[in-house]
Design a protein that fits this description.
There is one protein chain. The two termini are 20 Å apart. By secondary structure, the protein is an all-alpha fold. The chain contains 16 helices and no strands. Helix 3 runs antiparallel to helix 6, helix 3 packs parallel to helix 7 and helix 14 crosses helix 16. The longest helix is centred in the last third of the chain and has 28 residues.
């Protein structure tokens, strides 16, 4: 009976009345807010640092440019942080709600279960743990999720907005700029290309004016000296990153993304199948690119300690791949 049910995706993932992104956002907010309220400590000195930088940035404006606070993160948390740590954390819960809303939107358009899409988002331990914290991860997860929406729906303005601001949350996401440029050229929407570097350019100009150093932006890479990690550190840790229950489905989802790409028919009209294929393909690409990127950072240029929480920013593509698997 189980195998028969599994052969039919709709019966295996029963339909629940989760049809609106607003409902998904509500579920996401409640989950993250509960963690924010019930948490008894902080996520180490990282969360303490982000909170204090955001809290005092209005009184020391140069903190808005601080690389350790991340400009978009500091700006976004600055006002809530004036109400205290809990207020800042609840604002992070709103970001988690936005990520959940994007998952519902993607699931509905691809014909998959919105409820399972939200569930697979919060079943990831690192996303769940950081969804109500004053950290970079809620911002990264939100932007990446809506970046997938922008790509699958062919929304050039939203894609440029997301890709332009992502490096102001985590600088390593700039590696996707060539891909964004390729998409814009392929879709003949070149008018948006000039807007892509504007957030980084603004950060650079403001930093140069404040410091008097025209090369200020080149000094904002957070180089530190840490012991190098094993080259397979992140690969071996993936089961802990995504959770034991989602590990195998994600592997199957990557295979499904490849299969959908190979099965593409020339001149296929736009529709649910095309939307599904683009969502799966981009999700697999993000994961397969960021694992080597973080590995390079942890091994050959040890600017991190091999932190696993970075992958909370990939919660949306990982959740979609689990759903596909």
């Amino acid at each position: 009976a189980i195998l028969t049910a599994m052969s039919d995706r709709r019966s295996f993932f029963p339909e629940f009345p989760l049809t609106s992104p607003w409902i998904g956002a509500g579920i996401g907010f409640v989950m993250a807010a509960l963690l924010a309220i019930l948490a008894r400590g902080m996520v180490g000195d990282e969360e303490a640092g982000h909170y204090l930088i955001a809290r005092y940035a209005p009184f020391q404006p140069e903190l808005f440019l601080n690389v350790y606070g991340r400009p978009l993160v500091t700006t976004g948390f600055a006002l809530p942080a004036q109400g205290g740590l809990l207020a800042a954390r609840l604002s992070a819960a709103i970001l988690a709600a936005g990520t959940a809303a994007a998952m519902v939107r993607l699931a509905r358009a691809t014909g998959l279960s919105p409820l399972w899409a939200v569930a697979f988002l919060f079943l990831q331990p690192y996303f769940l743990a950081h969804s109500g914290t004053v950290m970079t991860e809620p911002w990264a997860a939100l932007l990446v999720a809506w970046g997938i929406v922008a790509f699958t729906e062919r929304r050039a303005a939203l894609l440029v907005l997301v890709a332009g601001f992502l490096p102001l949350v985590r600088q390593e996401w700039i590696v996707f700029w060539p891909g964004v440029l390729w998409v814009l050229l392929r879709e003949k929407k070149t008018g948006w290309i000039g807007l892509l570097p504007l957030p980084m350019l603004l950060w650079s100009v403001l930093g140069a004016l404040w410091s008097g150093n025209p090369f200020w932006i080149t000094q904002q890479v957070a180089w530190r000296s840490y012991p190098s990690r094993d080259v397979l550190h992140y690969v071996k840790s993936m089961v802990w990153i995504v959770g034991a229950g989602l590990f195998v489905p994600i592997l199957l989802g990557i295979a499904a993304a490849v299969r959908h790409t190979r099965a593409r028919a020339t001149g296929e009209p736009e529709g649910q199948e095309a939307y599904l294929r683009r969502a799966f393909l981009l999700s697999a690409l993000i994961v397969l690119v960021m694992v080597p990127v973080y590995t390079v950072f942890a091994v050959w240029h040890p600017i991190t300690v091999g932190t696993l929480r970075f992958f909370a920013g990939l919660a949306a593509p990982l959740g979609l791949l689990a759903l596909a698997g």
